[in-house]
């Protein structure tokens, strides 16, 4: 559509801001992702159970299970892939955070990811200590939908399936468990391909592909936003069964 560049101008600005700045190097890019188990029946009752980090090539440079402080209500196995016994003997979050800092973080690091603020909060990371700045991929791929006259946001899985070779359903089908190392890798590959060096035409083409591809059902939706009696409807308020904010 003729109005597409104007409608996607904010997303273009996010992409430009996310690219490498003066004094930054490609090898400074890191992605960190976490997995959580349920410690109660509410959609906010979660605790970190697995942490992974990848470098600027997508290679895993750190991975560790985490033993939650509170008892596990459900491992949410269909979502996490974790089961009873997987966390036995695992280190606590503080120990994992320190090891992650040694392996992957520092004041020069550019943290890349899909909505990485939640991972930063879960891990208690500090700007200027653990990372220099953050690049969120979600607003970069935000796309104006002329049919409905609104903007669409996409999941990381949708972005990877639509834009990265080999990351479609054949590699990781609908309902596949969440692997933080895999998600972090996909985030870095998307950053390298579409954000590190701004290319308006390439990014516009990516957005068209994102709109054209039908999204797969999420694990939460497949399970009707409840698993093992635990509410999964944090972002689907009308289906929430726990009443938590």
In short:
The protein is built from ten helices and nine strands. It has helices spanning 4-7, 9-18, 77-80, 93-104, 117-123, 137-140, 156-163, 180-194, 200-212, 219-222; strands at residues 29-38, 46-54, 60-65, 110-113, 133-136, 143-145, 150-152, 226-227, 230-231. It is globular, with a radius of gyration of 18 Å.
Written description of the protein model:
The structure is a single chain. With 245 residues, the chain is of the alpha/beta class. Helix content is 33%, strand content 18%. It contains ten helices and nine strands. It has helices at 4-7, 9-18, 77-80, 93-104, 117-123, 137-140, 156-163, 180-194, 200-212, 219-222, and strands at 29-38, 46-54, 60-65, 110-113, 133-136, 143-145, 150-152, 226-227, 230-231. The strands form three sheets. It has a five-stranded mixed sheet with strand order 3-2-1-4-5, sandwiched between helices. Helix 7 (156-163) packs across helix 8. The model is unreliable at 1-5 and 170-174 (pLDDT under 50).
């Amino acid at each position: 559509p003729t109005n597409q560049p104007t409608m996607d101008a904010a997303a273009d600005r996010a992409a430009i801001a996310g690219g490498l700045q003066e004094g930054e190097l490609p090898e400074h890019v890191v992605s960190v992702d976490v997995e959580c188990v349920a410690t109660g029946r509410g959609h906010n009752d979660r605790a970190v159970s697995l942490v992974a980090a990848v470098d600027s090539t997508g290679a895993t440079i750190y991975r560790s299970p985490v033993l939650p402080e509170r008892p596990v209500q459900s491992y949410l196995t269909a979502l996490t892939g974790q089961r009873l016994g997987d966390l036995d003997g695992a280190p606590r979050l503080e120990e994992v955070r320190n090891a992650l800092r040694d392996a992957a973080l520092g004041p020069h690091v550019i943290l890349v990811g899909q909505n990485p603020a939640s991972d930063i909060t879960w891990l208690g990371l500090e700007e200027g200590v653990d990372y220099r700045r953050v690049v969120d991929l979600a607003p970069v791929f935000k796309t104006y939908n002329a049919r409905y006259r609104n903007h669409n946001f996409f999941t990381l899985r949708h972005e990877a399936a639509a834009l990265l070779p080999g990351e479609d359903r054949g590699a990781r089908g609908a309902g596949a468990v969440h692997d933080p190392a895999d998600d972090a890798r996909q985030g870095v590959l998307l950053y390298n391909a579409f954000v590190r060096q701004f290319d308006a035409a390439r990014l516009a083409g990516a957005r068209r592909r994102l709109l054209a591809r039908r999204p797969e059902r999420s694990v939460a939706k497949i399970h009707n936003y409840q698993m093992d009696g635990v509410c999964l409807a944090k972002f689907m308020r009308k289906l929430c069964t726990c009443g938590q904010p």
